[in-house]
């Protein structure tokens, strides 16, 4: 009997048996720009078409789909040949990749077919990234509610070392959802990082992936945030659960908060012009007199005085208004957690206080 053909398998999950290790690699064959916007966690980008080639083929397709397909196939063949001579050259016969594109159509099908003809056990994700994206959106609607009272919000005014305490909780084995880390933003008007923020889609993918890896019967610690972190938005269903969750408010002496804020934003003290630009939108909220005092302290490089005034005249009033409004509307259980300083010893003491207070009996 003739040997059966080795053909790509079309699958409906990027995690066969909910185990991504079933596939040796997840290969995204979309263009680099598509991949950069969002992709399946752990996927590598091996584009069938470069950004320029995809644009070129798209323009031609509007005039002649037939000619565009010929041009596209020529590009794909050359690009796949490069892949075969580099990435796939050392792969053995048991190599088992999962390939996907936008809709699981021509691009992923072409690559998977060639890989199968070589002898690899290739699979194609049915529906491609579009299907994956719909799964993420659906999961983000359903997943937050499954934690059913296990979300714990860590709040506190600017400079109270919430992020440091979250990291300490994670080191002690607690489940932590780092929204600022996923958003690559420090959550305030000064919060932009050197690297750009992810797209909304990529942010949602990161949040969904992190929540999916957690045990919904155990507490999940999240830093209190507004619905927007920089230019990305917290998924609505998750944000609603955060609003109702118990709050653990860090209380830290003002001098230590000033020192911690200076330490966190030290880069901005080296770039006073950028600092002033970031503060400019606050002038209409604080008034000209206060704003000019800020600018004067920056010009004189009196950094500790500047940070203290910034906390007392802007961040603290904003925080307390927000907390008062939230408490009146949602009335969540709350407890204050003392943190004397950002030292490891004091952070560990506050971690223990959080864990003890996290017991339902202590919050009710």
Keywords:
364 residues, single chain, 12% strand, 12 strands, five-stranded parallel beta sheet, alpha/beta, 53% helix
Structural write-up:
This protein is an alpha/beta fold. It is 53% helix and 12% strand. It has 17 helices and 12 strands. A 5-stranded parallel sheet has the order 1-5-4-2-3, covered by helices on one side. A 5-stranded parallel sheet has the order 7-8-6-11-12. Helix 2 packs antiparallel against helix 3, helix 5 crosses helix 8 and helix 5 runs parallel beside helix 9. The longest helix has 28 residues. The protein is elongated and about 70 Å long. The termini are far apart. About 1% of the residues have low confidence.
What is the fold's blueprint, element by element?
Elements: E1 9-11, E2 25-28, H1 32-37, E3 44-45, H2 51-63, H3 65-85, E4 97-100, H4 106-118, E5 123-125, H5 128-146, E6 151-155, H6 162-171, E7 175-177, H7 179-183, H8 200-212, E8 220-223, E9 228-229, E10 232-233, H9 236-244, E11 247-251, H10 254-264, H11 266-269, H12 272-279, H13 283-286, H14 288-299, H15 303-330, E12 334-338, H16 344-357, H17 360-363
Parallel strand pairs: 1-5, 2-3, 2-4, 4-5, 6-8, 6-11, 7-8, 11-12
Antiparallel strand pairs: 9-10
Helix pairs in contact: 2-3, 5-8, 5-9, 6-16, 10-15, 14-15
- Beta-strand share of residues: 5-15%
Let me know the average pLDDT.
Answer: 90
> Which strand order spans the largest sheet, edge to edge or round the barrel?
1-5-4-2-3
Number of strands: 12
Tell me the major beta sheet: 5 strands, parallel
Order of helices and strands: EEHEHHEHEHEHEHHEEEHEHHHHHHEHH
- What is the helix tally? 17
Radius of gyration: 26 Å
Sheet/helix structural class = alpha/beta
Gross morphology is elongated
Assembly state (oligomeric): single chain
């Amino acid at each position: 009997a003739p040997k059966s053909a080795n053909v790509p398998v079309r699958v409906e999950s990027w995690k066969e048996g909910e185990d991504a290790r079933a596939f040796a690699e997840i290969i995204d064959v979309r263009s680099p720009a598509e991949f950069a916007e969002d992709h399946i966690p752990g996927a590598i980008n091996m584009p069938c078409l470069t950004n320029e080639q995809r644009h070129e083929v798209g323009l031609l397709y509007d005039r002649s789909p037939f000619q565009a397909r010929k041009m596209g196939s020529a590009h794909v063949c050359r690009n796949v040949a490069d892949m075969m001579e580099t990435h796939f050259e050392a792969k053995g016969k048991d190599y088992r990749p999962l390939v996907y594109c936008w809709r699981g159509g021509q691009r992923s099908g072409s690559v998977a077919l060639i890989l199968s003809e070589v002898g690899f056990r290739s699979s194609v994700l049915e529906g491609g990234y579009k299907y994956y994206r719909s799964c993420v959106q659906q999961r983000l609607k359903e997943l937050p509610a499954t934690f059913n009272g296990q979300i714990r919000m860590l709040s506190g005014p600017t400079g109270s070392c919430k992020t440091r305490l979250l990291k300490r909780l994670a080191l002690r084995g607690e489940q932590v959802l780092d929204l600022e880390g996923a958003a690559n933003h420090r959550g305030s008007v000064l919060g932009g990082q050197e690297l750009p923020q992810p797209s909304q889609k990529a942010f949602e993918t990161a949040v969904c992936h992190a929540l999916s890896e957690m045990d919904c019967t155990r507490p999940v610690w999240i830093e209190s945030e507004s619905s927007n972190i920089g230019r990305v938005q917290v998924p609505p269903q998750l944000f609603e659960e955060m609003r109702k969750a118990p709050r653990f408010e860090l209380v830290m002496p003002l001098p230590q908060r000033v020192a911690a804020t200076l330490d966190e934003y030290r880069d901005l003290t080296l770039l006073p012009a950028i600092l002033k630009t970031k503060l400019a939108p606050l002038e209409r909220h604080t008034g000209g007199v206060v704003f000019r005092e800020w600018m004067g302290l920056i010009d004189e490089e009196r950094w500790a005085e500047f940070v203290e005034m910034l906390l007392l005249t802007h961040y603290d009033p904003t925080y307390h208004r927000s907390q008062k409004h939230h408490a009146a509307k949602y009335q969540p259980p709350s407890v204050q957690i003392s943190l004397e300083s950002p030292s490891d010893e004091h952070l560990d003491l506050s971690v223990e206080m959080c864990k003890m207070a996290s017991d339902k009996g202590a919050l009710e």
